[in-house]
Amino acid sequence: MGTIIRGMTNDGMVKFAAIEGRDIVERARQIHQTSPVATAALGRTLLATSLLGNDLKGDGNSLTVQVRGGGPIGNIIVTSDESGNVRGYCARPQVDLPLRESDGKLDVSGAVGSDGSLVIIKDIGIGEPYVGQIELATGEIAEDITKYLAESEQVPSACALGVLVDRDYSVLAAGGYILSLMPGAEDSLITKLEENLSKCKAITSRLSEGASMKDIMLEVLDGFEVKFLEENPAEYRCYCSRERTEKVLISIGVKDLQEIRDDGKVSEVTCQFCDAVYKFTPEDIDELIKKAK
User: Fold this and answer.
1) Sign (positive/negative) of CA torsion 136, 145, 60, 33?
2) CATH number among 3.30.450.40, 3.40.50.1980, 3.55.30.10, 3.30.160.40, domain 2-234
């Protein structure tokens, strides 16, 4: 179970959301059997999507982030509900790359690619979903989210995301935050924030040292009076079910269902988000054909 905290500075000029999400990313790793670099890339996207989804605040609302970088792990797709519960996958989760020569860290940008786009889809249940899209900045995910918020939503922001992978490929630590400046923020405030951010250690370094995300936010906002407003749980949660899978199969139409039935074999449908497998016998398909008619 992860935890999302929200707060703001007492002057109302900076609001923030932060997440401790080791369990979320580790669950995704276990489901998809991701390589270390894919764990980091998918994990960062899960963390960011959880924070953005949790900001929707409305029953039934959802937010989807698509990272289409053109890199070897393929597209990353993550969806969050209004509480920040997330599910997601990348197209080729077992792809691995050598560590970066410059610093010995996982080459997330190389795996994701940076020649593509970041797409965010918000569905708040009113009319058509809102779709925002930008060209990727770096493929490192956090920088791309920052660029999206500035360009597509006109909100000056700072985003930091981190996933630390252990030698056995499990997730040691994962967390992130998004800071947003409110209209009217003075240049001196922005300068102070930039100074703080330049001095802060990496999120995963602090988490592995035993710091909490509250501790980290107080360090990021050193010199500001901070008030924490909310603390909510979030988890990796898939909403698939046999009933939903049946509805999807019915939607493909009688002709295609009949072709599946004529094959005479047991058909399997696998959920991309959680790898659950739903089996349908020829007799099951017969029932679906009746419903489709």
Assistant:
1) positive
2) 3.55.30.10
Give pTM, 2 decimals: 0.90
- How far is the C-alpha of 230 from the C-alpha of 218, rounded, in Å? 15
Query: Which residues are registered as beta bridge partners of 138?
Result: none
**pLDDT tens digits along 246-267:** 888 888 888 888 888 888 888 8
Mean pLDDT of 175-203: 88
Q: Where are the alpha helices (DSSP H) in 67-141?
A: 108-112
Position 187 confidence tier, pLDDT thresholds 50, 70, 90: confident
Residue 125 has pLDDT above 80, yes or no: no
Q: How many CB atoms lie within 10 A of CB 1?
A: 12
pLDDT number for residue 147: 95
Provide mean pLDDT across the span 258-283.
Answer: 87
Backbone angles phi, psi at 146, to 5 degrees: -60, -45
Are 270 and 89 a contacting pair, CB within 8 Å? no
Residue with tokens 């602090």: 206
Q: Is the dihedral of CA 106, 107, 113, 118 positive or negative?
A: positive
Over residues 83-97, mean pLDDT = 95
Give the CA count within 13 Å in the CB-facing half-sphere of 52.
Answer: 29
Stretch 186-191: mean pLDDT, rounded?
A: 82
Tracing tokens 């922001």 back to the chain, one arrives at: 157
Provide the edge-to-edge strand list for the sheet that holds 86-90.
86-90, 76-81, 62-68, 117-123, 130-135
How far is the C-alpha of 273 from the C-alpha of 281, rounded, in Å? 23
Could you give the C-alpha distances from 62 to 80, 90, 104, 220, in angstroms and in order? 6, 19, 37, 29
| 65, 49 contact by CB (below 8 A) | yes
Q: Where are the domains of the chain?
A: 2-234, 242-292
Output 293 or 268, whichever has higher pLDDT: 268
Task: Name which CATH class applies to 242-292.
Answer: alpha beta
